Amino acid sequence: MKSKILDEIKKYDTIIIHRHVRPDPDAYGSQGGLAEIIKTSFPEKTVYTVGKEEESLNFMRRLDSIPDEAYKGALVIVCDTANQERVCDQRYTMGDKLIKIDHHPNEDPYGDIMWVETDASSVSEMIYEFYLEGKDAGLKMSDEAARLIYGGIVGDTGRFLFPSTTEKTFEIAGELIRYNFSRTDLYDKMYELKPNVVKLNGYVLQNFEVLANGAASVTISRELQEQYGLKASDASLLVGVLGNVQGIKAWVFFIEEEDQIRVCLRSKGPVINGLAKKYKGGGHPLAAGASIHSWEEKKDVIKDLEEICL
Ligand code: AMP
């Protein structure tokens, strides 16, 4: 599959790379890392990275604003996005050919070519493997690509903590740190939190609800976000914080947005992506998400989570 993707990249003059809505470091890392590899390897090609910018990730990469015409005859690659409705910038179908590169369960197979590896820690890790496979056929790595890919891997593995981290992940990380970028600078930016988010973290730690069977929940209403002067996207940065609370097996954050309530699920064992799927979401076995549209539904999600933890 990797060599097939390289063949397509070689064929096209314009390559447009997308990723998912509400991006995280792996979305930026895989999208930007792939773009930098292509640009370094084939300087004559035009490569765009698109999508709505997430301010807190501007340090990773700034994105391009492109007209619809740019898609004419272009190759479009979507990174780290399991379902089509979660592709950020829905013009992704306007190109000549579409490639999906992802590590989530392939619930929504789309694209002319699909490369999906659910065992990969991150799509950034896959992008580095793509480089390794293609380096004899002309692919080149750059310091900037290495920085982005490394950041993506660190982000999606929770700093090499989650069980998705494999021997291969460490080998790749070991290769990446030989490139010229500052890890300290990257970590500082990735893990820097606004003072208000840290205060909300305090609220979360004081107010999480312990449910039956080792489940837990946190509710972050719009009112609370206003009180702390924060956006829903800021609140979602805290979803991992219950991971080291003794006795908690799986937990859910309900984060109220303008028109929906985001359901962010995390687990240290019980598989929770089936639950996310039940509420029309998805994700990984131990990190998944969905949306609900009323507080009534919150009770159902909690009941389901308690059952899964049994
Ligand atoms: P989040 O809780 O938003 O950080 O998401 C955790 C994981 O679940 C990520 O891998 C997301 O791609 C996935 N995910 C979150 N929300 C959805 C959704 N509505 N549909 C499908 N996958 C989702």
From TrEMBL:
<protein>
    <submittedName>
        <fullName>Oligoribonuclease</fullName>
    </submittedName>
</protein>
<dbReference type="Pfam" id="PF01368">
    <property type="entry name" value="DHH"/>
</dbReference>
<dbReference type="InterPro" id="IPR003156">
    <property type="entry name" value="DHHA1_dom"/>
</dbReference>
<feature type="domain" description="DHHA1">
    <location>
        <begin position="227"/>
        <end position="308"/>
    </location>
</feature>
<feature type="domain" description="DDH">
    <location>
        <begin position="15"/>
        <end position="153"/>
    </location>
</feature>
<dbReference type="InterPro" id="IPR001667">
    <property type="entry name" value="DDH_dom"/>
</dbReference>
<dbReference type="GO" id="GO:0003676">
    <property type="term" value="F:nucleic acid binding"/>
</dbReference>
<dbReference type="InterPro" id="IPR051319">
    <property type="entry name" value="Oligoribo/pAp-PDE_c-di-AMP_PDE"/>
</dbReference>
<dbReference type="Pfam" id="PF02272">
    <property type="entry name" value="DHHA1"/>
</dbReference>
<dbReference type="InterPro" id="IPR038763">
    <property type="entry name" value="DHH_sf"/>
</dbReference>
